[in-house]
Fold this sequence. Notes:
It is globular and about 60 Å long. By secondary structure, it is of the alpha/beta class. Strands 3-2-1-4-5-6-10 form a 7-stranded parallel sheet, sandwiched between helices. The longest helix is centred in the first third of the chain and has 23 residues, at about 90-110. The chain has a single domain, classed as Rossmann fold, CATH 3.40.50.720. Helix 2 packs across helix 3, helix 8 (about 210-220) crosses helix 12 (about 305-310) and helix 9 (about 240-250) packs across helix 13. It contains 13 helices and 13 strands. It holds the Pfam family Epimerase. It comes from Listeria rocourtiae. This is Nucleoside-diphosphate-sugar epimerase. InterPro entries: Epimerase_deHydtase (IPR001509), NAD(P)-bd_dom_sf (IPR036291).
Amino acid sequence: MKSVFILGGTGLIGYAATEAFLETEDYQVTTFSLPPVPTNGVLDSRAKHHFGDINNMSDAEIVKFLKGHDIFVFAGGVNSHYIPKKPAKEFFFQMNVEPVQHLAQLARQAGVSRFILCTSFYNYFHALWPELQLTGLHPYIYASVEQEIRLMQENGNGLTTVALRLPYVVGLVPGRVSAWKTYAKRLHRAEFPLYVNHHNKATGGSCYMTAKQVAQALIGAANDEVPSKSYTLGWRNISNEAFLALAKRAMKSDTQIKTLTFRELQAIAMKEAHENELAGREAGLEPVAYTELLTRTLYVDPIEALDELDYHNDNVELAIQQVFTSL
């Protein structure tokens, strides 16, 4: 039986991964999460759970803590919607890049044989559309790409590194409010307009998968036969128009969705960027530049990941409905 260490065990992905690894009966699971300790229903008694900030521990303490574990799953870090004080590039590097590289080095010292990173599908689009200069414009995407690069540089000398580029992930953690709460509030206030092109046709969309599918992919990535590689995951490509309709229906909302031209959409983004500037803050996804991504289809064909990581079909639309019904 192998032992897996999950950093971020009480988050959406960490919670689903804990359950999935335990259900195989092939793994012992240890989780490490930021406080507070969650309410009943989140912590599976079959796993060992620890709370604190791993970044505040000494190297010796971390190595000792990781001894005896075979696999390290990094499901922590700061997400793309965080708006820190300036400079954001430095903040996201400190929070998302440095811990991954450092923990991979310490994991090797502790005898861990495999390090799996949960990162962003923006890394895929950075490579696909170099003309958009995503890493130069968006501090979060810069850090996400750098995070992946630096992890893959740590491959070797007894440690196999795998990066999973995740799209939007939907699911619920018992007793916790979904991260989609802000989106739901803005939708209620009609602050999520839909961009339309010059033919008055809605454009844009994204890729989604469930937390359960991510957990299955993590189990696949834990397999010794899976090589060091970056995999772009996904399942359902859904247009922005269809996603908004799903969310509205789940919330039983009669809010009318506004349609805006690209110029109108950019005007809203400029106002948001100005407000951030006045507050001395900087978004991980720069609002004005991000309008370009809002109007594109961020779709993924995950055939390679499906073949090698063997995650399965799940009802993404139902998961979206459950999330927004809970809000």
